[in-house]
Design a protein that fits this description.
The chain has 751 residues and is α+β, with helices and mostly antiparallel strands. The chain is 54% helix and 15% strand. A six-stranded mixed beta sheet has the order 13-14-15-10-16-17, with helices on both faces. It starts with 8 loop residues before the first helix and ends with a helix. The relative contact order is 0.06.
Length: 751
């Protein structure tokens, strides 16, 4: 994120003259005044002041020491910078700005607060969502600007990938050169056939046997060229099919592997349908380009060059007529280049959007049918498909209008060639065989010219697809293993030391978290929605790294442990269970692929799942459909518990594991969980506070901070946040009356 913009001369001079003794830390645009009118100003932060400059003057000078707790609030598309006055403790309005710069102001506010608290101000900075070259916003979920991406760079990168298949390329190139040479030779053979056989006077034919041998030899030579070209073409296409398929297979697997290597934040920022489109559709378009165009354009270019040179040797005047339309065609294609590139940029964006909407609707098909909104979703999909259809039609109309116009130019050139050639023959300045040869070669030139007309379209399509693929490959994960990551066999001691974290670096979700958990201890995480409970779990799983502070497992910094190794020793049971399409057995062994049948049965018995599994005709081999659609919520939850327990995790995470279950299912799941947590360090999140009564310790979070800590009974006696949550929950579950439960009633239920 850019936090220091180049200052215009008037602003730089003003600061250097009046604030020379101060160190300039940040300089960002200030674009709204108190009337919400756009202005051209700057906010400059020094080590002492916040300065707001406009029209050559300092409009505001705010002493930083007079305020604390700087923050940014959003109001109807307008950002407001506020801070608390040190003397009065009241919130004071400081400045307004457009939401374009809200993240910058929020980041600077966070850095000021950290500096005032004596903390290190080095934090993650969100990337700019604008192209640094043209200033346009980047597409959602993309780090490249479609307008500024260089086609040549993308194509060179594609050919660099293809260079890994050198033997295929060499063989295809040799065949291509042979085919080109034979194609150029055939009109010459045909000219000899016309002049020396068809048009040769009878008195000049000599011995009939020799004449027929010559005739047969020329025909055989012509036929042999045609056969060789056909054979070479078949072999070349087979080679190219193998090359493109292997290359795209490697590219597709690389993209899929890279997606898995990316941090959770990457998949959160991208729609699943769009990622599927990039892995499948875009790589397939790249394959089609490599197979159909990558070498064909070389063939057409060589043909154009060789035939063009030869035509000048035959008759340079007629050769000029042949190539006369070429410069005009090039100019026309250059004029249409920008429109072509723009069309395909929009097409690949809409293609990804179509896939994203389709995936979204199909994933939630049960919700759609539950609320009877099929027609609404059909209309939504039709709307996005209609946009894609209209743009496709516009593209086809454009090209099918441009191409015939350009072909008229080549047709006029060919007509002029026939007229002048006929004139030469009538005046005995050229024989018929030479004219046939010339017109055949001219037709060979028009072929590459017409091919070049459509080539920009193919290139634009391939570049758009390849750029989307490379966009994924060029992303770097936010969470990476250390250079010498250790593979620690963990025991289960966990410690959070001064942990600060925000999903956006300038919006803290967790602040100053200090928590020590001993091996085998069960910790319950309690708090309102958004208090940071799941975030503590996400950091432990190392889906994200803390902005500051550290997390230790058995005294080792989590960032020094291999991600795969640490996650392989953590078991997770979530509220929203995902089961893969397959058998129950395959889903249970997902966390331990080498598990035996005995281990699976033992895990399922611990999870109270064995009995209901054995009621199915196929038992553990029962196919459960996509995401376990044939199972109830409680059955899916118990399979998930079995999946978590089978690899014997040292740390267990229970995130709302019983929130959506009925009473009977909850009882069975609770029994399974009690067996599961024994001798394991456990972090449990639950809105049903009764499920946490048996935790060794409860941690109550409030706005990202630890507000209370203690056992269930200790927190009740303290009558703080936890006590209020318990009372509120009991009141919500009362079946009679609307009056609130009294403290005496509650304490009576506890005795």
């Amino acid at each position: 994120m850019t936090l220091f913009f180049p200052l215009p001369a008037w602003a730089a001079d003003l600061v250097s003259d009046r604030y020379a003794a101060e160190q300039m830390l940040f300089a960002i645009p200030w674009d709204l005044n108190e009337k919400d009118e756009f202005i051209d100003g700057y906010c400059i932060v020094t080590d002492r002041n916040l300065l707001f400059l406009q029209d050559g003057t300092v409009c505001k000078e705010i002493l930083a020491e007079a305020f604390h707790d700087f923050k940014v609030n959003a109001m109807s598309g307008v950002g407001i910078l506020e801070a608390k006055a040190v003397e009065s403790g009241e919130n004071v309005y400081l400045a307004r700005f457009s939401m374009e710069h809200a993240a910058r102001y929020a980041t600077i506010a966070q850095k000021i607060n950290m500096a005032r608290a004596g903390r290190n101000t080095e934090i993650r900075e969100e990337p700019d969502r604008k192209c640094l070259k043209c200033g346009r916003p980047l597409p959602q979920g993309s780090s490249i600007c479609p307008r500024c991406v260089k086609k040549s760079t993308v194509l060179i990168r594609l050919f660099r990938i293809a260079s890994h298949y050198i033997p295929y390329l060499i063989a295809a190139s040799v065949m291509l050169l042979t085919m080109t040479g034979l194609n150029i030779l055939m009109p010459k053979i045909y000219a000899i056939l016309v002049n020396d056989v068809y048009l040769r006077p009878a008195e000049e034919r000599g011995n009939l046997r020799d004449f027929m041998i010559l005739f047969a030899f020329i025909i055989l030579a012509y036929f042999s060229c045609r056969v060789l070209i056909t054979v070479m073409s078949v072999l070349r296409f087979r080679l190219l099919a193998k090359l493109s398929s292997n290359m795209v297979h490697d590219l597709r697997v690389s993209v899929f592997e890279h997606i898995h290597a990316m941090s959770v934040s990457f998949t959160n920022d991208h729609k699943v349908g769009d990622l599927i489109s990039r892995v499948s559709n875009d790589t397939n378009r790249v394959k089609n380009f490599i197979q159909g165009e990558a070498t064909e354009c070389i063939n057409q270019f060589l043909t154009l060059l060789a035939v063009g040179i030869y035509l000048f040797f035959i008759n340079w005047k007629m050769a000029l007529i042949v190539i006369l339309p070429a410069p005009l065609i090039v100019l026309l294609m250059r004029a249409f280049h920008r429109k072509t590139h723009k069309i395909y940029r929009r097409l690949w964006r809409l293609s990804g959007k179509c896939n994203a909407v389709l995936q979204d609707i199909l994933s939630g098909i049960r919700v759609v049918k539950t609320f009877g909104t099929e027609e609404k979703e059909i209309e939504r999909y039709k709307a996005v498909c209609s946009s894609y259809k209209n743009l496709t039609v516009s593209n086809e109309v454009f090209w099918n209008t441009v191409q015939p116009l350009i072909r008229i130019l080549t047709a006029l050139s060919h007509l002029a060639l026939m007229l002048i050639g006929g004139f030469y023959i009538l005046h005995s300045q050229m024989d018929a065989g030479t004219l046939v040869q010339f017109t055949t070669y001219a037709a060979m030139i028009y072929g590459p010219i017409n091919y070049m007309i459509s080539l920009p379209r193919s290139i634009a399509d391939a570049v758009a697809a390849a750029a989307r693929v490379f966009d994924i490959l060029d992303n770097e994960p936010n969470v990476c293993d250390a250079e010498k990551a250790v593979e620690l066999d963990i025991k289960g001691n966990v410690e959070y030391q001064d942990v600060f974290f925000g999903y956006k670096s300038y919006q803290a979700v967790l602040e100053n978290i200090n928590l020590s958990v001993k091996r085998g201890e069960m910790i319950g995480l309690v708090g309102h929605s958004g208090s940071g409970k799941s975030t503590i779990i996400n950091l432990l799983l190392r889906f994200y790294d803390p902005d500051s502070g550290r997390i230790l497992i058995d005294g080792v910094d989590l960032r020094d442990i291999s991600q795969h190794h640490i996650r392989s020793q953590i078991g997770v049971v979530l509220q929203e269970i995902f089961l893969f399409s397959g058998s129950i057995f395959e889903n249970v062994i997902y966390s331990k692929p080498d598990a035996t049948y005995e281990e699976v049965i033992r895990a399922c018995k611990m999870a109270n799942a064995h009995d209901f599994i054995m009621k199915f005709p196929d038992g553990y081999d029962t196919r459960i459909g996509q995401n376990g659609q044939t199972l109830s919520g409680g059955e899916k939850q118990r399979i998930a518990i079995a999946r978590a327990v089978i690899h014997d995790p040292r740390i267990l995470i229970l995130d709302e594991a019983t929130a959506s279950l009925d009473t009977e299912s909850e009882k069975l799941v609770q029994e399974a969980l009690r067996r599961l947590v024994q001798n394991r360090t456990t972090f449990a999140i639950a809105h049903r506070l009764s499920t946490l009564k048996f935790a060794d310790r409860l941690i109550v979070l409030d706005h990202g901070k630890i507000a209370e800590s203690g056992t269930h009974d200790e927190l009740l006696k303290a009558k703080g946040i936890y006590y209020g949550l318990v009372l509120a929950q009991l009141n919500m579950t009362r079946l009679v009356g609307q009056e609130e439960i009294t403290e005496e009633e509650y304490l009576g239920t506890e005795q």
